[in-house]
Structures are given as structure tokens and as C-alpha cells.
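Q: Convert this sequence to C-alpha cells.
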Amino acid sequence: MESKDTKPPASIGKQEGDQKANGASPAGEGVLPEKLKLVALRVPSRKCGLFMSTLKPKKLLLHIKRVKPVINDPDPPGDARSTKLILLNPKIQDLKLSALPSDIRELCEKNGAETLWHILTIDHTKHLTLQGLIRSILPPNVPATSSFETVGHVVHLNLLDAQMPYKKAIGDVVLKKLQDNHVRSVVVKTGRITDQFRVFPMEVIAGEKNLVTELREHGCKFKLDYGKVYWNSRLQTEHARIVSTLKHDSIVCDMFCGIGPFAVPAARRGATVYANDLNPESYRWLKENVKLNKVEDKVTCFNEDARVFLRKITRELIEEKRPMYNVVTMNLPATAIEFLDAFQGLFPKDFTQEQMPRIHCYCFSRGETLEEMIKGALERASGVLGSKLTNASVHNVRDVAPKKNMLCLSFHLPLEVAAERKDSSAGPSGTKRVAETKALDNCKRLKS
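A:
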């Protein structure tokens, strides 16, 4: 057995005393690449199996997750494929292997193994999970998180208050870990949603400032400015669920359409869509996505207040004797229920119940149980609408927070509501006005 350079190399990075018994753990102050000095065995490639079967049971091999103990020889004495390096346990720091059992030394002598020093660079961003990386840069008393949403090249993190002082370091780790997945920007929410466009304030904590991005959802292409419009990738299953209920001749009134996650796939399915959003930026990207998916002939875009839009499109369809919409989507869960009174007196008296649209109204609801949440949501919707919901069903979309869920209330618009001929801006009168006031108070409480 030969050995090269019996003197250990100078310390690189941290001292061996900072290394764990068999492998290394990243420093609490960061996850920069770590260099380990190891004893390696240069062995003939054809003898690798023999050495591995002998060394592994004795726990003499390097054992670091996602790091192979056998590597190509970077400086082979002969043919490039003639030798391999077997990396030994970091506790072994003697090229003569004097502390190892005699049978191991005899194995090396008999099979022409050579010992040498090898410097192994470990990039923890490749060898640790994302949660492990984040944990490595946080103090022990601060919880780690690995929950995030990816929107095109943008990653959105939801950080706890205790994690915010470390947001830059967390952002750098996430960016480096996910850069192979085309991630170029990492953002974090900096406050609650307070504006009428439902866009939360955010900060770019790593990477590019440009948040104009592209993504695909269920075969559709979407382009958006993530800093100026609302998008939630967690709702893609819900988008697909509603779109799957549509027929090729469905006519959809999308009151809060955003950039088109309902409108565009509905149009691609063959439906005619009247899509509206109050946010000028959402309207801009809606038109872009309609064009991008080649459904200009199926989608008409509006940039109006939802009440104004509903009255406008309904009146136009009636006056021009065009087919009336038979599906309404109201995807603004924080306040959509408050807009249900806009349907009062919306249609002429000669309309029938069969002509009333199916409404899908989204809302948040709190409660100790799902049953309690559903009951509360139905009561609020009935109070604002001024009537019991017809053929109602409730779908639990997702958990938003402890004891708070996002629900979808689906029902047919009651004829007695649609033909009441009331001014929706004034709202119901009498007992219905009291019921609406109570329901709106509940809606405002849910937004807090």
C-alpha cells in the first residue's frame, strides 16, 4: 500500500473539530460550500466492488446524504478509467491507516490500493432539502419553513414574523436551491391586502426585481405581473373543477375574472365568456392572455365595477336579443357575497326559472367545524340576496387558516329575486334590509 503526502493539508474552512463524526453539518451562519479533507483510496476500477463490500459493513466509508463515496479519479496514473477514488469516513485522518483493522490494511496491500488526501467540496444547497437549508441559517428557536408558491420564475414565501429578520438570507438560499427550476425571483408578503384590487404588498428579497412572468395551467398559457395582479396557484384544481362543468355552448359571466384563470380555459372549452375585472392591470393581462390563447372570438373583456358590469351586460343581451348567460362566477372570496344583491330585479318579469343562471359564489367562512362554516356562509348569502338559495351546493375549496376555509356556494338564481325590480344600489328594505346589514357585518369581520 502506497501513501502520498503523509502530512495532512492545511485546514480548509472549519477545523475538523467542527465536523460531525461522519459527515458535516452546515454552519448556523450560512450555507456556503464546505470543504472536507478526506483520506481516499485509489483502487483499480475493477476492484471497487471488493473494497466497497468490505469497507461498508465496518462503517469506514464517507456517509453524507446525496454524496457518493466512490468518484472518478481526478488525477489517474494511467488510463482515465483505470482507477477510482473511494472516500473514507472523515474520522480517518491517517494515510497509513494505522488505526484500521489489519485485514483492511492487508486488503489494500494485496490489491495495490494507494492512500492520498482528497479535498471534497460540499455545496449544501444541492445536498440538503430546502427546509434543511433554511433551518441551517436560522437560530434554533426560530422555526424553519419550506412552504412556498411558484408562479412562473417567481417564488412567493409566507414567512412568520420570527423569520422576517432573516428574510434576505432565506431568500438567497431559496433562490440558489431552486435556480435549476428556472426560479429567478423570491418575494415575501409585507402586509395584509388592503386595496380594492386584492393585491398584497410584497418585497423582492432575492433575485430579479422584474415580476412579469409566464406560466401554464391546464393547457393554457398565462402572462402576468405578479406584483400588480392577484394570482393563486393553489386554486388551479378549483379552476379546473368549474370549467369541467361547462358545455361547449355555455355562456359565462365572470364578474371578478382577474387575468383569466376561469375565462380563458372556459373559452378554450368552447364557452362564450363575458369577463370583467376592476383592476386595470388585471384587465390588461386578461386581454393579453385572451390573445395568447387565441380565444379572442370567445371572450369579451371589461374593466368595470362588478355591479355596473352585471347590469350593463345583462341589459345589452336583453336589448340585442342575444343569448343570456347561464353561468356566473364570483371569485372574490373576501367580498363576493356582498355583491349578490346586484341580482335583485336584474331580469324582466317574463323570464322563467329555467332561464336563471347558475351562480358560483366564493367566500371565506369561519367556524369550529366545516358544517358550521357552511351554515354560516349560506345564511350570509341568503341574507344579502334576500331569498333562500335554490338548489344550493357547497364545495370546500381549501383551508385558509385555522378555523377559516374558502368555500364555493353554487345555486340557481331564484326567479323571485331576479324579477323583484328593486334598485340594487339601495338594497332590500324592511326585514330583508336588516338581514343584509347583519350579513355584511359578518363579511367585514371575515376580512379582518
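The first helix runs from residue 48 to 55.
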